[in-house]
Structures are given as C-alpha cells and as structure tokens.
Amino acid sequence: MKKNIKIVFLYIIFVLSTKIALLSIDSIIFNEADFTKKTYFLSVSIMNILPVIFVKIFNIKKDHILTLLVIDAYLIAQSLWVNSNLLWIVTLIYFIINCILLYRLNKKIKIL
C-alpha cells in the first residue's frame, strides 16, 4: 500500500512539474504570466531528480523512468520554439542522464 502511495506521489510530481514547465515556456513566448526561465529550470530539475531518488531509495519499478524520458522529450520539443537555447539544452542534459541511468539499471533486469 505504501508503494502505491509513493507511485501516486511520483505521478503528481510529474504532472505538476510538466504543467509548470509548459506554463513557463508559454509565458516566455507570449509574455502573459510571471513565470521565468528560473521557474522552468526549477520545475524540470524537480521533475528529473525526485523520481530518480524514488527509484534508487524506495525501490519503485525502474520503468517509471521511461515516463520521465517521454516527458523530457516533449519538453525539449516545446522549448525549441523559444529563442533561448538554454531551455532545451538543460532538458536535453537531463534526458541524456536519465537514458544513461535507465541503461545502467536495465543491465541486470530486462524491463523493455
């Protein structure tokens, strides 16, 4: 039961961080909200660091990192529309780190 609560919490973090990152991209493009690049970096960092901690410490299934990779790929595609290259480069770095982590975790146990 506790593992299910942790998984629900993990997906709440995914959804909230993704929404905040997308709102940050929209506010940078359209200048409608008060979100900045710092808000984008903070939300993407939280979205990428906490699930890795959950997988490492709480022994949650490693295939949740695949969901994280899909969200990162979507954010990379969205941030390419912004004039600043820094947004998609930071997200790409997290994407590559998560790919390496998934590869290392997948060496012994096949999840794909």
CA radius of gyration is 15 Å
Average pLDDT confidence is 78
Total domain modules: 1
* Distance N to C terminus: 25 Å
Break the fold down into its secondary structure elements and pairings.
Elements: H1 2-30, H2 37-57, H3 64-79, H4 85-106
Helix pairs in contact: 1-2, 1-3, 2-3, 2-4, 3-4
Could you characterize what this model shows?
The chain crosses the membrane at residues 7-28, 40-58, 65-81, 87-105. The chain has one domain (2-106). The model has no long low-confidence stretch (mean pLDDT 78). The radius of gyration is 15 Å and the shape is globular. The chain is an all-alpha fold and 112 residues long. It contains four helices and no strands.
Task: Supply database-style keywords.
112 residues; mainly alpha; 79% helix; 0% strand; transmembrane helix; membrane; transmembrane
Short description:
Keywords: Membrane, Transmembrane, Transmembrane helix. The protein is mainly α and 112 residues long. It has 4 helices and no strands.
